[in-house]
Amino acid sequence: MINDTFAHYRDLLNGVLAPTSDALTWTVIQPITGAPTPAELLERMGLQESDMEPARPVDLTGELEEGMFIGRSGSSFVVVEPNGYQTSLQEVLLRLSTGARACSVFWGVTTPGHLEYAVYGRLVTSLAIHSPDWRYGDQPHALDEELTVLEQVTAHESGHPDLHTAAAMAVVEAATGVRLDLDWLAQPHAMVRREAKVPRPDLPSGGVVELDPDLDARLRLADPSVQALAVQRAVTEVLTQHELLNEPAVRAGLELLAADKVTADPPGLTGCDSLTSRLRMDYVAHRFEVHPDQDPRRARWQAAQALASLFTPHGYDVFQPLVHAYFAAGDQWPSVRRALKALLG
């Protein structure tokens, strides 16, 4: 069954969708707690009914139109965007999944393909279609069974990107039960030609706002002197965790901090042959052997980078070292944030 589904999308991409097979977004929205009206759905995508005009994705001559096409398949909404990406934006996908679930696959000419699954306004599973083992979200393994076909293609056909896109579309069908086929593409649907915009949440720039919004907010409310102390504490914690305290460059950097002598070029910590550079090169040489979040080489590099970023010239984001500390800490981040919360009171 799954092999037939994969073959269907491979043929579709090589056939009627071939003109836009290099860049496509396909999203399925399945209402659960009440069906939104078409106007409500459009609003979630940053559109209005006045933006709509009827059109067939594939016209009577067999030519593919370009635009955002919005239609139905049973009780589900279907959005197809040849050379478009609006519904792949996370801020849009999460809005579309309010009271519903939404599954979207996207790839671009220069952008790696991505598949995302959201339910009730939360990102459940997110992954790059060329690296399906590396999954993120609230429940990274929620689509394990559906992703089998993509894993098989990745294991055996890594040199054929079109097969990855076909397999990713097969995953969307397996997850939602909705098929995209020539019959749907030949039917008239609502079409939008203009670029839509959805306001992004009002977030401060920099810091760990995306990684740990609670801690970010607490830090920004604290006195600047406490902020600096908390950031340095986090850096020291991850340096200790990765047994880097005895490195000469680390010792020199910590001594400068203790003496309140912040310099843009701490000895042995930055530059081509520095500790940070060597650790980075070690990570790059072995990247993709394991998931980055589980790679101790990346964690050690990030710990050194956290210290190095404390010495960046004035004007740089004061919370940037925390981003590196977050990735250095890995599973130990909860203990680091507890230490910081204790300092913040």
UniProtKB/TrEMBL annotation:
InterPro entries: DUF6461. It holds the Pfam family DUF6461. This is Uncharacterized protein. The lineage of its organism: Bacteria, Bacillati, Actinomycetota, Actinomycetes, Streptosporangiales.
